[in-house]
Amino acid sequence: MQGGAGAAVTGTAEPPRDLDLVTVPARQGLEAVDILRLRDGVGPVLHDGACDTLGFLVPPGTADGWDLPGSACTQTYGGGRGSGVPPVAGTGWLVPPEGAFAAATDPAVLRAALGEAARTIEAVDRCC
Question: What is the pLDDT of residues 50-60, one digit of tens each?
Fold first, then answer.
């Protein structure tokens, strides 16, 4: 099953093997994970070895139109929900596939959560 750029993959159908990956700075990513867990659900999330960045698995094709400043979206190959193996070398799971709400995070929902996270961080930084 292949999801479009705006479709979260849910249910018992076979999830896509090739997913795209949105990477963001860890601080913004952690805020977004909290927002998504409380509201819309979050798909699998990776962290890099140094914990500098987080990566959200999103449906294939998302990279073609992703343009959110401060983030990047790239294609991955393999390591989808069913394998348990992170699709990027040198990473580990922050939210493992078996603990995720869906096989991938909806890109529109992720974009909104990342925007809210950035505004929250900016407000906190102004106060301190």
Answer: 889 999 999 99
